[in-house]
Design goal:
By secondary structure, this protein is α/β, with parallel strands linked by helices. The protein has helices at about 30-40, 60-65, 75-90, 120-130, 150-160, 220-225, 245-255, 265-275, 320-330, 350-355; strands spanning about 5-10, 10-15, 50-55, 70-75, 95-100, 110-115, 135-145, 165, 175-180, 195, 205, 235-240, 260-265, 285-290, 300-305, 310-315, 315, 335-345, 360-365, 370-375. Helix 3 links the parallel strand 4 and strand 5. About 45% of the residues are buried.
């Protein structure tokens, strides 16, 4: 069992990750969280309503709750974890304000604490969006683990916000102090990006944090080449939908099906919603769910689930989210209905799916990917 005791200059707190799993091996914070809080304490920086960006499971917001921080994130799970960790530590829910990545904070921001996201496109989008909203004299800190901070990170920061100074590494973490240069012109925001789907009349909108935002990823392409054929009314779910391309093709194949686009990323759902509008299809036949997987779906209500599951959560690589999706799918599918999954061959999802499904079969394979279908009678 991993450590849940988060020790900070502001006190000690118990923190847990989402989704919950038995024998959790990862902590709900990292050394960059610890280092950033240490620097704030050493410099006696205390400002009301600091803007905290990309707080993975609420570590920074929980520690700084006396200052009523604003939690700005693209991840529903991250913000749910923050709420649960506040409650677990006996902290009032209203000590933190939540904004999704599709919303902008109010102007006059005088303290920014930003954790480096996995996607540098998201970082670039955030910095461009924030620059006009910063107050004169704003203090700006960016923290991350050294392995997730490529050299291009500093170029992005200094091009948009201003010059920076970086601490020495501590427990493989670094903190960047950025001096806001108001004379720097705000670049044009390149996001969302758009690209034409091959062999299609569709042009896909992709907000900054959407997986494979510049072209069709090869796993999705393989699934699209081997899609199950459906007809007539039914409930079809694109689980972990990203920009929604799998659900779009399923909708085109079966004009009578109700399509559910499900993702925990605000930008993914926004992208899928915009892309669906190109189909000129009955709007009532599509529903968009910003959700922790299928947690909002009733038992035995789906006729088909299509999934290209994620293989990381924030910076951590692992199958926690994928396994949660498989378990939820077994509950939500009707008897005999199928979950179709595309995945890298080495992930051994065939055996993992067998934990929840009585029948797991190989549909197609190539040197890199497999497509599996799973069902219960």
């Amino acid at each position: 069992m991993t450590d849940i005791e988060f020790q900070t200059p502001a006190g000690n707190f118990q923190l847990q990750r989402l989704p919950r799993r038995e024998r959790e091996l990862l902590r709900a914070w990292d050394a960059a969280d610890e280092y950033l809080l240490q620097i704030l304490a050493e410099q006696s920086i205390q400002r009301q309503h600091p803007l905290i960006c990309n707080d993975s499971f609420g570590a920074l917001c929980v520690a700084l709750h006396p200052f009523q921080p604003i939690n700005w994130s693209d991840s529903l799970l991250a913000q749910q974890a923050c709420r649960e960790n506040l409650q677990h530590n006996g902290i009032a829910a209203d000590r933190v304000e939540y904004l999704s990545s599709m919303q902008l904070p109010a102007s006059g921001i005088d303290l920014v604490l930003l954790k480096v996201p996995k996607s540098l496109a998201l970082l670039e989008h955030q910095l461009i969006s924030l620059k006009p909203l910063l107050a004169s004299g704003c203090r700006f800190f960016i923290a991350g683990m050294a392995k997730g901070m490529p050299a291009s990170l500093w170029k992005i920061i200094e091009r948009i916000i201003g010059p920076s100074k970086t601490t020495r590494a501590l427990k493989k973490a670094k903190v960047i102090t950025v001096t806001v240069n108001p004379a720097l012109a705000v670049p044009k925001n390149p996001y969302p990006t758009r690209w034409k789907l091959e062999q299609s009349d569709l042009t896909l909108v992709n907000h900054a944090n959407v997986f494979s935002r510049e072209k069709l990823d090869i796993g999705t392409r393989f699934l699209l080449q081997n899609m199950p054929q459906t007809s007539g009314p039914g409930e079809v779910i694109d689980l972990g939908c990203g920009n929604g391309v799998i659900g779009l093709l399923a909708a085109r194949q079966n004009p009578k099906a109700v399509l559910h686009f499900v993702d925990e990323s605000c930008m993914a759902i926004a992208s899928a919603r915009e892309n669906y509008q190109q189909l000129k299809r009955d709007a009532s036949l599509a529903q968009f769910h910003l959700s922790d997987g299928l947690s909002e779906f009733a038992d035995q209500t789906a006729d088909l689930i299509l999934c290209n599951p994620p293989f990381h959560q924030q910076q951590a690589v692992g199958d926690t989210l994928a396994l949660s999706m498989f378990q939820q799918s077994a509950r939500v599918l009707r008897p005999g209905a199928e979950l179709w999954v595309v995945a890298n061959r080495h992930l051994d999802y065939h055996n993992k799916l067998s934990r929840w499904f009585s029948a797991v079969a190989l549909v197609a394979s190539n040197p890199k990917f497999v497509i599996l279908k799973a069902s219960n009678t």
